[in-house]
Amino acid sequence: xxxxxxxxxxxxxxxxxxxxxxxxxxxxxxxxxxxxxxxxxxxxxxxxxxxxxxxxxxxxxxxxxxxxxxxxxxxxxxxxxxxxxxxxxxxxxxxxxxxxxxxxxxxxxxxxxxxxxxxxxxxxxxxxxxxxxxxxxxxxxxxxxxxxxxxxxxxxxxxxxxxxxxxxxxxxxxxxxxxxxxxxxxxxxxxxxxxxxxxxxxxxxxxxxxxxxxxxxxxxxxxxxxxxxxxxxxxxxxxxxxxxxxxxxxxxxxxxxxxxxxxxxxxxxxxxxxxxxxxxxxxxxxxxxxxxxxxxxxxxxxxxxxxxxxxxxxxxxxxxxxxxxxxxxxxxxxxxxxxxxxxxxxxxxxxxxxxxxxxxxxxxxxxxxxxxxxxxxxxxxxxxxxxxxxxxxxxxxxxxxxxxxxxxxxxxxxxxxxxxxxxxxxxxxxxxxxxxxxxxxxxxxxxxxxxxxxxxxxxxxxxxxxxxxxxxxxxxxxxxxxxxxxxxxxxxxxxxxxxxxxxxxxxxxxxxxxxxxxxxxxxxxxxxxxxxxxxxxxxxxxxxxxxxxxxxxxxxxxxxxxxxxxxxxxxxxxxxxxxxxxxxxxxxxxxxxxxxxxxxxxxxxxxxxxxxxxxxxxxxxxxxx
Length: 625
What we know:
By secondary structure, the protein is α+β, with helices and mostly antiparallel strands. The chain is built from 18 helices and 19 strands.
């Protein structure tokens, strides 16, 4: 209050006190004027004072009550002043609290305007709130950094997997693409890819297959023997080597502005199933973060597996090429044999035709083929000269002999059956095995024809034969060649199966890596059909993967979002240009119909004409306190 207002209060209380005393005196005076004693007097004020001496005290009563009002006003003013000081203090305190709260709301957590008074519970609570917010902000910042690192590693592994799938038939190109990707993705200065080879003597050595510095390919030839230097040590120990204290003579990074030693060297072995295939060496002017080292180590196993697969592919291709050459050679031989057989068949058909149509020219046939005549029981009647030359007998040695002397013991039963059929008037035409005088094995293409008289009786059997021993040998050789070719093809087929198993194992291992990611990861083809749906995606959407795989991606969004949100509309529409590599916050629709805000990061992969899109999704969580 203002000073003039306090003065008015003092005056009002004093006046009212005086007025109260005056009214009391007036009331007493009026009451005493009606008394009998006063009425018997002259009715003057002096008479009243004389009759009632106490009136003298009442005369000073207005002054006494005025003084009492004055002192009461002083007490009231003192209370008002005390309240004013209290209100002023509380106003300043409220202003400081309001300013402190506004600073907290604006994120200014370093505000120290609020005094920490032990008796002020509100200040103590606000200071505790500030300390909690500072702690929470630090934890959120740390969580954000860790989340960015996990996203960085997950995205890098996905992109790295695409590089390994695109380059699986050329080791040099694969090595350069690997080291180029790692140098650029890690934003370091220099990297080298050392591939383990073996010379003709069986000695192991490391060859610098690819080198990259300052985003430019370096053409350097460097060979490091097994167990030599840090490269050899890294391969022998099969463990990562990380150095920050680099000797001056170890390595120098050179650019157009000069040269300098790196601050950190990272060597990671390329191993799978405890077998080393090479070493990656990375150099940087900045020290490597733990998550960067972990990323390189994770990619090293995939690199080693891919190198193993490429080497198997190269060896398989080489064997397949050799097998194709052998197959072509065998095919040529088979074609030649087939032509010979066709010629022989044509010759035999021609011989049969002549036998039916030209029975009168047996003498000409006798001079061109092995021929003989024998009785129905197999006893020889006559033979020609070719017969004797083929079986290496003299005429007197076979006179009266049976055909069974020309058959091996195992073939006697077959010959008896042929003779039985001839006795029944049946002709015989086919290839038979016979035995010469020296015990040699020959093959004859034979035709046995019964000669029937006018009475229908068989008088003798006419035999015409061609020596096909050479052709049979060629057939046996062709059969063995086919068997060898079949074995080679079976071996190549088994090797291809093993290779496909290893490739499938790498694929399964990469999918398990993505399956274990904390972020939801989904993959669609260019038509928008879902092909991959990890466990985190199942948890986020509430669907089992069997419910979504093979379905269109639009089932994961509401119809309104799919039509009106540009990012989602492009994502679910076939043929639309997708927004790649930029994080977007969009709502999704889970299995229960609820919309959940998430962060989308979309990447694209292309192998030939095949496109696929992989999305990394993070749930947006908001904590209130």
